[in-house]
């Protein structure tokens, strides 16, 4: 268990989680209507509410990703991104279970996957589920590693 408390492991996990979410937010921030199409395609969010996650979720991913990577607000960012990853797992899992292929919108534009076959979409959805499971595990490590991080010694002590 000592390894899980390693500041180096926490630092590496923070860079990976932060980097993934910073990268994934980029195209969504630049093109909210495209991301709204991806959200619509999940058939989970009511039409009236589509624009809220399409506009605000990418900014949350960016800010929380920066917080985790930079170490300022790391615990809060890791918790928020962990919860968001669980939401992604549930949304993707729900669509996989009901046989509804979708383009997740995680790392590419919705338009990039329009010509994909259902098999290609399902394969991508499964990859995203596994990626999100890994991100949840890394977020848990960040939370665990920062709780048990060694106390900093100041010159006054």
What does it look like?
By secondary structure, the chain is an all-alpha fold. It has one domain (3-147). Helices cover 69% and strands 0% of the residues. The protein has helices spanning 7-30, 32-41, 51-70, 74-97, 118-147. It is globular and about 60 Å long.
Structure at a glance:
The protein has helices at 7-30, 32-41, 51-70, 74-97, 118-147. The protein is mainly alpha-helical.
Which shape, going by the Cα principal axes? Answer: globular
Extended strand count: 0
* β-strand amount: under 5%
Query: Overall pLDDT, averaged?
Result: 89
Largest sheet: none
Judged by helices, strands and strand pairing, the structural class is: mainly alpha
* Oligomeric state: single chain
Put simply, the count of helices is 5
- Radius of gyration computed on alpha carbons: 17 Å
End-to-end Cα distance, whole Å, is: 29 Å
SSE topology string: HHHHH
In helices, the fraction of residues equals 55-70%
Count of discrete domains: 1
Low-confidence stretches: none
């Amino acid at each position: 268990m000592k390894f899980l408390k390693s500041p180096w492991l926490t630092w590496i996990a923070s860079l990976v989680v932060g980097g993934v979410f910073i990268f994934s937010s980029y195209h969504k921030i630049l093109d909210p209507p495209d991301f709204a199409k991806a959200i619509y395609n999940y058939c989970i969010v009511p039409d009236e509410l589509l624009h809220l996650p399409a506009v605000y979720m990418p900014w949350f991913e960016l800010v929380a990703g920066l917080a985790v990577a930079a170490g300022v607000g790391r615990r809060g960012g890791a918790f928020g991104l962990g919860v968001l990853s669980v939401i992604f797992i549930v949304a993707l899992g729900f669509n996989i279970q009901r046989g509804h292929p979708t383009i997740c919108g995680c790392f590419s534009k919705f338009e990039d996957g329009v010509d994909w076959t259902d098999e290609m979409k399902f394969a991508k959805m499964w990859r995203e589920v596994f990626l999100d499971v890994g991100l949840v595990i890394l977020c848990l490590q960040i939370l665990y590693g920062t709780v048990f991080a060694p106390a900093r010694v100041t010159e006054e002590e």
